[in-house]
User: Which sequence fits this backbone?
């Protein structure tokens, strides 16, 4: 029975069979030979997700003296979930929905014009590469919601992917791990696996030890998606001096290291820890602000104004705002990865209690917005038509992974809410398959009892209260979780008979008594 991989648009692509694999190997050899004759080094990017696809773009688009430096094999395993990316990329199209126009602009240039990128599913590409950039998924599992200390990292899939490299790569090739991994991964997981596979191939490790480096990205999906990879600071390290030097040369070739210099750490444990520590700091910052948001709501204070006043102090400019919750691929898991590494890789008896507790606070934040909605609706959402504005985890981004909207939706559904959702950037919400994404914003508001401003998309920022109420056909509950409503708009909603609540906006109760 033929199996298919289905794209977000619903297009089916048949998964390759053995015959297709044989033909693909021939094509890979021919393409690689031609590229080497042009004097280009070969890079394989393992994993074409939100980071890997754009990293492949950046590498394939890099030049020296006006000429391309590298040819890139973008490698995506032939799974039903993701294989569709291969034919899409090879048509010169982006596999990613992004508000950054550069994402869509680069793919046709490097695939059709420069011909410096080709996607494949075949592991044979690894045997042809001088550098392999590892961008595969490595998640933390949190089995108990709101209890992140029970979280763990299942490295099984990651280990299989590294073993696949070990069975194929040239001994002198560099393996550059870009995936966010638990501290200690390169030294305690990647290195032993590659050594095992090298030995099985009869490779002399004393002459050809695996070349391994780590350099983490600080990708920021949104309007500066590509720039956040190419034009941003990088920390890096290598397993030895040779690996470090190879990584440095590669990064200098593909990134703007003149304006954004590289920062070298002395071993891969340090650079891996840097990534998880960096995101744990941000997660803890957000969790701290959430505690104060609850206080501000109870005592009648606008915490956003308080935060603004504190930020005038230069040392406190990175104080976060309160909000709907924390989502995305990094802040929801990186503290858990580091905690797991502390206990399981480094065999410590104590974990990272503050960092892990911040994850608990952040995971539970959407439930507070549900409580605000219940309060605004007379104490319950059961039987009420509740409309979410935003399914993604971040404003002006179409990525729904670990979105706070998912947590809100599932909790509200359990309490009997009749839910609907609109998001201008999300075509499919795989984490909530029962949700139908509305495309007509004002049409989607009809007959709703409550509107949750869940994501700060530009389209929602510009909404006029009068038009919202007219589209709904009645006064309704308005929950502002993202500070999208200034006091003037809040007053308009109140004048229109709406009940308004806001995360960190305890001052709304005072606005109700302002003389008309």
Assistant:
């Amino acid at each position: 029975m033929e199996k298919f991989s289905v794209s977000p648009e619903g297009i089916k692509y048949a998964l390759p069979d053995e015959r297709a694999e044989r033909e693909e190997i021939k094509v890979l050899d021919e393409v690689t030979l031609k590229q080497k004759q042009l004097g280009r080094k070969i890079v394989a990017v393992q994993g074409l997700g939100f980071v890997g696809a754009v990293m492949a773009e950046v590498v394939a688009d890099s030049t020296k003296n006006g000429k391309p430096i590298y040819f890139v094999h973008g490698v995506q395993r032939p799974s039903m979930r993701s294989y569709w990316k291969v034919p899409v990329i090879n048509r010169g199209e982006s596999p990613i929905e992004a508000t950054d126009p550069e994402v869509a602009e680069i793919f046709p240039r490097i695939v059709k014009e420069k011909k410096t990128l080709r996607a494949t599913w075949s592991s044979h590409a690894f045997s042809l590469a001088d550098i392999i950039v590892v961008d595969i998924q490595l998640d933390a599992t949190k089995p108990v919601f709101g209890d992140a200390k029970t979280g763990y990292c299942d490295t099984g899939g990651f280990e299989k992917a590294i073993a696949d490299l070990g069975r194929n790569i040239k001994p002198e090739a560099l393996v550059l791990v870009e995936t966010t991994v638990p501290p200690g991964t390169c030294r305690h997981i990647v290195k032993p696996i590659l050594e095992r596979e090298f030995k099985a191939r009869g490779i002399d490790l004393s002459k050809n030890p695996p070349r391994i480096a780590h350099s983490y990205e600080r990708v920021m999906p949104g309007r500066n998606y590509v720039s956040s990879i190419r034009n941003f600071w990088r920390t890096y390290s290598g397993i030895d001096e040779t690996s470090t030097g190879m990584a440095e040369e590669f990064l200098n070739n593909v990134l703007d290291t003149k304006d954004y210099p590289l920062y070298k750490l002395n071993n891969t444990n340090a650079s891996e820890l840097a990534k998880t520590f960096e995101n744990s700091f941000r997660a803890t910052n957000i969790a701290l602000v959430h505690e104060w948001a609850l206080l501000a709501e109870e005592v009648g204070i606008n915490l956003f104004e308080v935060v603004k006043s504190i930020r005038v102090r230069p040392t406190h400019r990175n104080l976060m705002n309160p909000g709907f919750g924390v989502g995305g691929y990094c802040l929801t898991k990186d503290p858990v990865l580091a905690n797991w590494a502390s206990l399981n890789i480094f065999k410590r008896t104590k974990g990272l209690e503050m960092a892990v507790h911040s994850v608990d606070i952040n995971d539970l934040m959407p439930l507070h917005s549900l409580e605000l909605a219940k309060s605004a609706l007379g104490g319950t959402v059961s039987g009420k038509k509740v409309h979410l504005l935003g399914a993604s985890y971040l404003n002006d981004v179409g990525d729904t992974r670990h979105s706070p909207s998912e947590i809100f939706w599932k909790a509200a559904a359990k309490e009997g809410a009749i839910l609907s959702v609109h998001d201008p950037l999300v075509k499919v919400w795989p984490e909530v398959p029962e949700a139908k994404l509305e495309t007509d914003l004002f049409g989607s508001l009809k007959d709703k009892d409550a509107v949750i401003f869940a994501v700060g998309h530009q389209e929602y920022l510009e909404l006029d209260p009068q038009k919202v109420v007219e589209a709904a056909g009645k006064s309704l509950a308005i929950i502002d979780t993202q500070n999208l409503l200034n006091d003037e708009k809040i007053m308009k909603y109140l004048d229109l008979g709406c009940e308004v609540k806001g995360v960190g906006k305890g001052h709304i109760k005072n606005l109700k008594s302002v003389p008309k």
Observations:
- The chain has two domains: 4-266, 290-511.
- The two ends are 70 Å apart (CA to CA).
